[in-house]
Specification:
The protein has helices at about 1-5, 15-25, 40-50, 70-75, 120-135, 155-165, 180-185, 205-210, 230, 265-275, 280, 290-295, 305, 375-380, 410-415; strands at about 90, 100-105, 110-115, 170, 225-230, 240, 245, 250, 310-320, 325, 340-345, 345-350, 360-365, 370-375, 385-390, 420-425. The chain is an alpha+beta fold and about 450 residues long. The radius of gyration is 22 Å and the shape is globular.
Length: about 450
């Protein structure tokens, strides 16, 4: 918390250090470097800036007007405004309403924000699930390509180290254990600069093409050295959920099977979708026609019955990480809800339109908030996370959780510099049953 507070204080050492670094890094910067930036790029640059700290007065932040979250906002120092973006309140369904509210955005039909939807207890359970139960075999993480990770998971090994049950053993690079690295990686993706990939949006009609697209494994780095387990933990960036996503082609690799969805995650996502009054989200939309939704027309009326989360990712952001503007178009179900759950530190979320030329809406997402992207326009909208806000771990994630293992202090320590995002979607439309592993010729 101190670092976050200091950077806002012009008399602090942290502020002066950041200013000095900023002046040095911008000394030779062209005067009109931003002339060709799109509105989305300009917004990313604004919120990414380390100095001066970005002004968040134009960022939507419902916690700023919520008395129950006053301590969370005050301690973190970062604060937006609850009236900075046009939106409309809708009452959630079920359990007598319970006074729970969500917000919809006329500028982005299909975007729904549910502040504080996930209870503090559920947040703790999700954090433990993400690190201890999910980021381990058989679920692939960003580290598996390059390292031979402990079978029971990197985080669980780290817990044993911190309990004093074992030493801080080194994790070995995968390439170093291959008898003939060249032979092993001949069919793998070539190592080198990242290539921009722009695929045709997935659909039931091009499923056969998706299946037939080669999806070679990524090549492990040949230059990595063994590293202690504790050093590797902060490098964890993502863990796959459900259907395996192939990053090299930005397509799902259906040949590897569906994978499992945790009942904890599935139940929360199903509850989110069931409680949203979709008639208030889309019912008054004059553009509900086949030109927007496809030849079968709108399907939001059936989501309570047809929504079934079957894929996704757990993102582990450190405070200096960003997620640049992108569009999700790998799912065959192009309109069904994408449910995104925020845990740990807060973040600035940007969502724009169908191109980067559309100015994005900035939203401050705090732990327990849920964002839903649904419908044809919103699911194809550019979005990203330009800033994780340091020092914003909420009070309800501090202190002992009362469980017998007594390990929450280690989770809390990790969360102080981390945002966890559980991002779940539906790959296949209801009723579409893909013949997994079937050769493309038999699908035609």
């Amino acid at each position: 918390m101190a670092a976050s507070a200091d950077i806002h204080d012009p008399s602090s050492a942290a502020y002066k250090k950041a200013r000095k670094k900023h002046l040095k890094s911008t000394r030779n910067r062209p005067e009109h470097i931003d002339a060709d930036w799109t509105p989305f790029r300009a917004a990313e640059k604004k919120y990414k800036a380390r100095f001066p700290p970005p002004d968040l007065s134009d960022v939507l932040d419902f916690a700023a007007a919520d008395p129950t979250r006053a301590e969370e906002v005050a301690r973190g120092k970062w604060k937006g405004r609850a009236d900075s973006v046009p939106c409309a309140e809708v009452q959630l369904r079920g359990h007598g309403g319970g006074g729970r509210r969500a917000y919809v955005f006329p500028g982005t039909p299909g975007l729904v924000l549910l502040p504080s939807f996930v209870s503090p207890g559920e947040q703790r359970r999700l954090v433990k699930w993400a690190l201890s139960e999910h980021a381990r075999h058989p679920n692939e993480t960003n580290l598996d390509t390059h390292y031979v990770l402990p079978h029971k998971g990197l985080w669980n090994r780290f817990l044993r180290i911190r309990r004093g049950e074992c030493g801080d053993t080194e994790v070995l690079p995968r390439a170093g254990l291959q008898a003939d690295a060249k032979t092993e990686t001949e069919s793998a993706e070539a190592v080198g600069p990242r290539k921009l990939i722009c695929n045709e949006p997935a659909s039931p009609e091009n499923y056969a093409d998706l299946v037939s697209t080669p999806k070679p494994p990524a090549a492990p780095s040949q230059t990595l050295r063994p590293v202690p387990t504790s050093t590797l933990v902060p490098r964890l960036r993502w863990a796959n959920i459900g259907w395996y996503y192939h990053w090299g082609t930005k397509q799902y690799d259906f040949s590897r099977g569906p994978g499992e969805i945790s009942p904890l995650v599935r139940n929360i996502c199903k509850s989110v979708v069931e409680r949203i009054p979709w008639a208030d989200v889309f019912g008054r939309d004059k553009d509900d026609d086949e030109m927007v939704w496809g030849q079968n027309g709108p399907d939001w009326m059936d989501w309570n019955d047809t929504y079934e989360p079957d894929a996704g990712i757990v993102n582990f952001y450190q405070t200096k990480d960003t997620l640049m503007a992108h569009v999700d178009r790998s799912e065959l179900s192009a309109t069904s809800p994408l449910v995104s759950i925020s845990l740990g530190c807060a973040a600035v979320f940007l969502i724009g339109g169908l191109t980067r030329d559309d100015p994005p809406t900035p939203i401050l997402l705090r732990s327990g908030d849920v964002v839903v992207m649904s419908g044809p326009g919103c699911r194809r909208a550019y979005h990203g996370v330009p800033r994780i806000l340091e020092g914003t771990l909420p009070p309800h994630l501090e202190g002992d959780d009362g469980t017998a293992d007594g390990d929450w202090a280690l989770y809390e320590e990790y969360l102080r510099g981390t945002r966890i995002n559980v991002n779940v979607r539906q790959v296949f439309p209801k009723g579409f049953n893909p013949p997994v592993g079937t050769p493309p010729s038999r699908l035609e």
